[in-house]
Structures are given as C-alpha cells and as structure tokens.
Amino acid sequence: MSHLLEIKDLQVQYHTEDGTVYALNHVDLELDDGETLGLVGETGAGKTTLAKSIMRLIPNPPGKIEGGVIEFDGKNLLTASDSEIRAVRGNQISMIFQDPMSSLNPVMRVGDQIAEVIGVHEKCPKEEAKRKALEMLETVGIPAERASDFPHQFSGGMKQRVVIAIALACNPRVLIADEPTTALDVTIQAQVLEMMRRLRDKYHTATLLITHDLGVVAQMCEKVAIIYAGEVVEFGTVHDIYKRTLHPYTEGLLGAIPQVHLNVHRLSPIDGLMPDPTIQRTGCPFADRCKYAFERCGKEHPQFISVGDRHKVRCFKAEKEAEKGGMD
Amino acid sequence: MFRYILKRIIMAIPVLIGATFLVFTIMDFAPGDPARIILGSNATEAALASLRESMGLNDPFLIRYGRFLLGLLHGDLGTSYRNGKDVFELILGRLGNTVVLASSGIIFSVAVGIPVGIISAIKQYSKLDNVTMFITLFLMAVPTFWFALILVIIFSLNLGWLPSSGMQRGFPDNVISLILPTLTLGCGYAALIARTTRSSVLEVVRQDYIDMARAKGLTEQAVIWKHMLKNALIPIVTVVGLNFGTLLGGSVLTESIFSWPGVGRFVVDSISYKDTPAVLGSVVTLAILFTLVNLVVDLLYAFLDPRIKSEYQSTWKRAKKK
Q: Across the interface, which of B215, B304, B322 has its CB nearest the CB of A127?
C-alpha cells in the first residue's frame, strides 16, 4: 500500500565548524491521506529539521540531506528540480511555522501575503486572488476588512490564524504544522487547535503535527511518531502509544505529564540529557538514560521493527518481549 | 501626513536661525575689512569710512544680524562683496552643478552598492564575499584627494580617456567630464552602501518570514526582491539620505580637485575673500536643502515600513467593494 507521504531512511547533517551534527539518522515515517500524525520529541530531537527537510528548506550550508527518500504522491521530493519543488511548496504541501510573530512579513499587508500564495499557484488575475484571500481570512475567523492591515496590528493568535490561512489557501494535501501553538498562550492555543481541527476535517488535509505536548497529540492525532536524538523510536496509533507503550522513552514522556486525577506528589522526569548529536554512536542513543538498558543496548543499534498492525518500535527490550509474546 | 510635513518645515526654522547666527558670528570675528575688499587696497581712509557707514558696518552686531534676517525673510541674500552681484543668483548658478554632481554620485553608489551588498549577503563567506568586503573596506578608508588623483593619473594622464578637470558643456562632453568626479564621490559611498546593505540583508535573511516566503513556492528572485530587500531597505535609505544631504552641502574636495563650479567650491572661495553675504547665503541654501532631503528620507521610512506609519490609499478598499 502506498502512502501519501513516505519518508524512508532520511539522514540530515549540519556541517559546522565545531563538527558534524547528526540531526536526523535513518528516519522512517508515513502519512496517509486525511490522516493526522503527531510528531513528538523534546527540543533538539530533530522535529523542525524533519519538517524543513520535507519542504527542502534546510539551509545549505550548513545543513545537508545526506541520504534517504521523501516520497510524496509517488514522487521523490529530494531529487525533484527546483521548479518542481516550488510547485509543491505552498500548493500541495504547506507549512506553519513555530513563531507567528516572525513568520509574517512585517512590511506586507496580510491580505497580500495570502493573495501572494494563491497568485503563485493558481495563476489567476490579481483581483481574483485578492477575493480568494478575503474568503480565506473569513474562514480562519478574521473579518475581511482587516486584509489591508499589517502584521503588527494583529495579536499573536490572530497572526497564527493568518499563517494558517496562507498555508491552507491553495488547499494543500499535506499540512506540516511545526509547533503551531507553542508561542501562544494557553487559551489561544485551544482556539487555534480547535480551528485547525475544524479546517482539517473540512478540507480533508493530511497533517503532520509537530509538538512536544502529548496532550495536544491525544486531542488531534490518529497516529503518533516519537522522535528521539534524530530517530523515530516508536510509531503507532494514539491507542498503541498511550495504552501499549513499548519504548522506555515514550514511557518516560508519558510519565512526565501531570495527571490531575491521580494522587502524585512529584512528576517523574526522565533523568539525564539527550546525547551529544555531534557524536555517532554504536548503541541505542537512549541507553544511558534507560532504566531497562542491558548489555546489548550499549553495543548494537536496535532496528525499527514492527510489533503489531502498524505499531513499530526501535528497542531491544520490546523486541525481546515481542519474541516471547510470539512464542506464547 | 500633511500636518507632519508642516511640523517638520516649521522645525527647520530654528535650525536655520542657529546655523546662520553661528556663521555670522564666525565671519564677523574673522580678520579683514569688507570695505577694503570692495574698494581695493588703494582706497582712501575717508572713502572706506563712508562706505562702512553706508553699509551699516558700524552698527552693533545684533542689529546687523537682524538686518540680515530681515533681508532673508524678503528672499534677499544681499550682494557679494567681491563683485557686487546678487548672492542668490550667484548660488543659483552653481547649485545646479552641485545637484548634478551629487545626484550622479548617489545614483552611481546606489546602483553599484545595493546589488553588490545583496550578492555578498546571499553568498556570505564565499570567496566573492570576502573579496568584495576587502575592496569596500579599502574604498572607504582611502582619502578622497588621493583617490581622485589616482583616477586622474590613470584615466587622464596615462590612458587619456577622460578630462582631468573642469565642467564641459554640451552633450556628450558634459557627461564625460562628469565621470571622474562621480567616481571620486561615488566609490566611497558605494562601498559604504554595499556594506550597509550586506549587514542589513544578513539580518533579514534568517528570518522566519523568508523561509515562509520560500515555503509558499515563490522563486528565489521573488523572495529576494519582494521579501528581503524591502525589509532590509530602511538602514540603506538612512545611509543614502544622509550621504545625499552631505553631498548637496558641496563636496568641497572633489569640486576643488576637478575645478567643478559648484557650491562647495564657491563657499571655500567666499570664505577666503571674507565675502560674508555669499557665505551666509550658501549656508542658508544648503541648510534648507539638507532639511528637505532629511524630510524626504523620513517620509520614505513611513512609506517603507508600515510600523512607522503609512498613509497611502489602500488597494484593498477597492477590492472589497467589488
């Protein structure tokens, strides 16, 4: 079965003066039509690098996509020509950036910024693009008469709505949302997420939602990928990840969520830090912080194995348990 | 917008009074007797005294300054001590030449500086960038008189392509005689503008909205010209505006070296003759010009950056009505 967006063995490195940073190591990921996939990981795990790789927006130098395949609709984006990738950007695949404060051009009217993307891809006359831009503004809950305003006249939440309007203006098949609510305060977060969910259902857009908030994932996503130190360590449905957790890192993440209904005095954070990304390691990158680690974990790199329908994990402990389970 | 302009023009008045007062005082304290300059060294003491009396030179300082201001209000800048001609007309005859030289210098420096700066920024740390930055640093550090002389040696003496000085009349001679002064003025400013552009573009280049523009599927050209440059333009406009103001003030050195009949040389000559009306008249004219250029720059800010304030008619209002 072929997927709408399929990432295979993606490797991205940043070549800096202080050495090579291994940002993404052999990442595999898939996204189906209309589906929402949550990509969860801590800061520096490679989430944004992954998002920018799909759009081919990794700044080069210092970044470089060293290997792998990103297949969109059967076509490898990594080998596509510049004009081919431009036809995909903003049209088939759109991206929402982390910080709405800085992702709008401060000297351009918001209406023009929306109309611009429509004009580029739909090759329609200016007036037509402007009319569509006004519609789009209304869709994200901003009155059309504010189209002639500049970004500084909007609040953070409103700006993110404008960014979403730009992203969805050409009705893309995939939306990449890179921590769309991290920079907003909590009440606005809920509004923006609610709106995103409504629009996703309306336009049937497949979404890659990048976040470090597992609560948001439970609300929004069908599938989850947990990313750690540049590799996907566990992948599955929301139910798989929350109820049949396999990877100790996922377990740790879930343990770090405050549970109001349980009588817990302290949250249990994961001890230690992510490994230095400039060092290539032979063993499992999580081994140092893993309470289940055994000898093999420090020596060999675990493979990404399937344990169930679409549940995948990269862990020797889970591998062992799966084998045992299989024998029963 | 109109009220802002009016306010700025009114604010120029104290500047003018201050500048003229300062120059008037300095010229007054400087040695030399205007009556002797006018009548020559053979004049009798009696003739000198009567001329002083009739010109009001024996009146107290403030009364003489007040008389000058009164004349200024009537648009009368007085007559030159040197040749008895109307100062206003003398300046007017030279102002055009200065404006031509200043404009061509600025146009040259902008036309060269901005593209060089952009390319340098986009190819940051490349060989091209390093070489460009070295050349611009050199051009900025080089003194004008030396650079002008080198240009004259190369293009006039050795190659014989261009005249070494003077302003010729008639096309294309006038343009040809403009080339060396323009290069002298323009190269240093082009270097300054290139460096300003580079650092300004570099600040913009890593902004999220530039990634966002690329993520929209725009071509790299559109990203640079539509999104980067307009955001990077304010520091560039500041530098260009200030330079243009300074250049209008007469680039004394360049005009002297190339015997360019502009205001800068006129002021220097007038000072050495203690031709007070001519000096004051020039100062007033240049101060007004400088104020105007600055006003235009400030208005440009508002035009470039909506956060500073823009007040032009929106195309959006028309779109909505349809």
A: B322
